[in-house]
Structure formats: structure tokens, C-alpha cells
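Follow-up to my post from last week.
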Amino acid sequence: MWQWLHKLASPPHFYRMAGRLMPWFAWPATLLIVAGLYGGLVLAPADYQQGDAFRIIYVHAPSAWMSLMVYVTMAVSAAIGLVWRMKLAHAVAASCAPIGASFTFAALATGALWGQPMWGTWWVWDARLTSELILLFLYLGYIALRSAIDDPQRADRASAVLAIVGVINVPVIHYSVVWWNTLHQAPSVTKMAAPSISPAMLVPLLMMILGFTLCFVAMLLVRVRGEVLRRERNAEWIREVLA
Amino acid sequence: MNTIGSMAAGRLLFQRDLRLAMRRWDQVTDPLVFFLMVTTLFPLALSPELSRLREVAPGVLWVAALLSSLLASDSLLRSDAQDGTLEQYVLSGQPLTVLLLAKTVAHWILSGLPLVLIAPLVAAALGVPTAALGVVMASLVLGTLTLSLTGAIGAALTIGLRRGSLLLALLVLPLVMPLLIFGARAVELAIDGETAAGPLYLLAAMLVLTLTLAPLTAAAAVRISIE
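User reply:
Got it. Predicted complex:
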């Protein structure tokens, strides 16, 4: 087990393995997303209250889910990098940030698009949207800190501390925003996830969520490969690999 | 190898920081003047009517306190990092957590406490009824302490960076947004004449959480930053 982990953590080995594994995530992700989109946009019946506008949930909910999952992934790999001084884990954390920020942005944008027909306005200070916005700020702070530090080792470790502090704060932020929201707004705000959802609507949603997760893994592998190349640019094995 | 206990070292550092501030008074007055100025902006921008100001007073007070405390956090470690004192703390063999906690508490007494003391004045000027001033102060005591502790993490992470103070704001602001929510809510409840215990308890809970974790994190961040 440990040997396997050590081998995985060695950059040349990881570089080769990530390259080989990537299609195994990318293709199922493509298939799932295409099938999920078809199921969600064409096959699923229109919602009896929201009409066709509800269909944006098929992009919005997976993006929102990913925005959180990527943050947790980032914090966990940052912690691994910090505790075991594993360079590869830092490379993973660094690669997570832009992907996570993009998912968060997608969740915000689709949330705003959904708000226009539902609430009649592009932006409502809804609890979920607001905590997504704060999550985006957390991502941007992380990216800003990383890019402000020139020394790569210090950048890795300092941003790792920030990611861990952030992940402890995410639930606090989320629940305080929910609390703030329920005080200031009428509770009539429609919940995105209805308690009972018909299978014709649910199955495409689950496919999209799984597809987005696999898509994230594929993107992560590509980005970490790039990150490893950049970090190890003076290493001998790179010449062999690229030759 | 320790020649004195860690508590004694912390106390010495605490006294040193207070004494330094007494000799250089601007560290205390700058955030305070900033706080006064920001709160003055709102009546000018909105309207001089007290009834309207009263509605926005919780938000104004808390946003101004947040920004002023953030501005002050920037100076927490700056001078010590510049003249190499910070490295000596790390090398001293004393637990860095205790030293940083002492520094942060001293820093709060110099930047947070004056703000708490002047807040009733500003609040009254914004039309907050006298009965609510106690809650204003209580919420600010809990809030600014948490802010100073969280700010210490940000300050430790941004030691010696270009645009460090701006970066500090970017890092710390999203983390302290819950404080703003509960702090402003407590003041709002007090203005309406209701009991503000709920949000105050939550502020206290966040203070306890930050008090236990922030000095440890700040110590780790200092070690990383000066390595």
C-alpha cells in the first residue's frame, strides 16, 4: 500500500499514469453528459410549476455540487501536501483551484439565468447563491495568494494553510448565510431540489452529476500533468518523456 | 533550553507590544480615525435623517469595524517581519502559538478595544437608541477579537509580499462574513428593542472556535512564510 502510494507520488510515474488514465475518465464523462443532457432537456417532462425553465437544474445543480467537492478535494490534497510534504499533492491542490472557481462561476451564472424567469430578476440574495458567491471569493483569494508568492515552495504551503482554513469555514459560512437569509426573506423561495422528484427527471440529473465528477477528474489529470511538467522542467526524465 | 516559561515569554511580548504602541501612538489612532471617517461617509451619502440612518446603522457600524480592523491587521506582523524580530521569535524555542496569541491580544487592545469604546458615540450619531448601545459594544468586543485572530492568519500568510495589505483583505474578508451577519443582526435586534442574545451567543461561539484554532494556524503560517 505505502509502496504503491510512494510510486504514485513520484512525478514521472504519475505523469505517465495520468496520461494513460485520462481517457478512461474523459470518455465516460462525455457519454454521461451527452446522455444526461438529452435526458434532461428532451426526455424529461416539463415541471408543472416552473415549466421548461427548471431544466437549467441539469447544469446548475452539478456545477454547485462540483464547486464544493473541488474545494474539499483541494483542501484535502493541500493538507496531505502540508503534512507529508508531498509535492504532487500540492500540484493537485494548485490544479484544483481554477477548475473549482470555474464550476462555482458556472453555478452562479446558471443560478442567475434560472432566477430571471422564476423570480423576475437576475440576482436575488438567495442563501444558496450568496454562499456560492462567497465560495467564489474563497477560490479567488486562494488563487491570488498563490500567484502573489514567487517562491514555489512557500506558495504551495501558504496556500495550503489558506485552503484548510477555508474548508473549516465553509460550513460556518453556509449556515450563517442560510440563517441570515431565512430572517430577511419570505420563506417562499422555491427550493431547487424538490423533495419528491420523478425518476424521468432524477435519472438525467444523477447522470449529469456523475458525468461532471468524471469530467472534473479528467480535467484535473490534464492540469496536474501540465503542473508537473512546469515544476519539473529541469528534471532529466522530462527529456526522455517528451523525446 | 527554555530559560523562561512560555507564559512569561508571552507576557513579556505582550508588554513590549503595548509599550511600543505607547511610544508610537499612530498605530492606535489610524484605524480609529479610519473607522470614524467611514461611518461619516454614510450620512453624507444617504441622508442626514436619523430615522433612515437608524435602519442602516447596524450595517454601517459593522462594515466600518470590519474594514478598520482589517486595515489594522496589516500592521500586526509587518514591523517585526521587516527587522527580523519575527525570525527570532521562531528561533527562541518558545512556542510560537503562545507568542502570536500574546501579540494578537496586545494588538486587539490597541486597535480593537479603542474601536469598541468609540462605537457608542458613532452609534448614537447614527440614531441608535441608548438602550441598544450595550449590545453594540458587546457584539463589537466579540467580533473584533475574532477579527484580530483571523487577521493574524492573513497577516502571517502575506508577510513580505507585494500588495500584501490588499491581498490580506482578499483572504480574510470571505472568512469573516459570518461575523458581519451575526454582528449586524445583534445590533438590529437591539435597535428594535428585542433580545439580542441569539446572535451574541453565535458570535461568542465563533470567538471560541477562532481562539482555539487561529493562533495554531497563524504559527504554522509564520513558519512557512519566513522559511
